[in-house]
Write a structure and sequence with these properties.
By secondary structure, the protein is mostly helical. The chain is built from six helices and no strands. Pfam families: NusB (PF01029).
Length: about 190
């Protein structure tokens, strides 16, 4: 009789995995109208038990995820205000929840962390493509590229000053959104 070896889930130590973890926490918190920190604590416990609902994070990635959650809670109002001013022609109610939460997460990083803008935008676009609708990646990229440009101009930097990583291939103007936001909003995050 041959025994099957169970594949051990190895923790991931990347910032991209931490961002996806926080996106899922943010999505669940908004969907269930539950405090973000409470969902994070529950998700961390589920992850530690080996459940694959949330990505397994190594210690550094988990610490980064916790910093993101704390910052999102602390600055949520300012983040939403900036997004309201940046996304012209769309209200939050008209947008897919996945797109909005990806934008909130990335906006926090662009505004309040020293992370270079291109990798933050690239990670956001990847998450949007994975969990959002057909046009989510382009929409998120367009909004964040415009926001990044505005933020750099506010501090007197050249828009090209932060080009330390290649920008994502998708581009769309910041005043556009997915053609049918309701159709692209799943009941819960989905794997691509």
């Amino acid at each position: 009789m041959t025994r099957r070896r169970e594949k051990a889930v190895q923790p991931v130590g990347t910032r991209r995995a931490a961002r996806e973890f926080v996106f899922r926490v943010l999505f669940e918190a908004d969907r269930g109208d539950v405090p973000l920190q409470a969902v994070f604590t529950r998700a961390e416990g589920v992850m530690r038990e080996g459940d694959d609902t949330f990505p397994q994070l190594g210690p550094d990635a988990l610490h980064f995820a916790e910093e993101l959650v704390t910052g999102l809670e602390r600055h949520r109002e300012a983040i939403d205000d900036v997004l309201h001013r940046t996304i012209r022609g769309w209200t939050f109610d008209q947008m897919a929840q996945t797109d909005l939460n990806v934008l909130r997460l990335a906006t926090y990083e662009l505004m309040y962390t020293p992370e270079p803008h291109p990798p933050v935008i690239e990670s956001a676009v990847r998450i949007a493509r994975k969990f959002g609708g057909d046009d989510s990646g382009r929409f998120v990229n367009g909004v964040l590229a415009g926001l990044s440009r505005n933020l750099r101009e506010e501090v007197g930097e050249s828009p090209a000053a932060d080009m330390t990583a290649p920008a994502p291939a998708d581009t769309a103007p910041a005043d556009t959104a997915p053609a049918d936001p309701a159709a692209s909003e799943p009941d819960e995050p989905r794997d691509a």
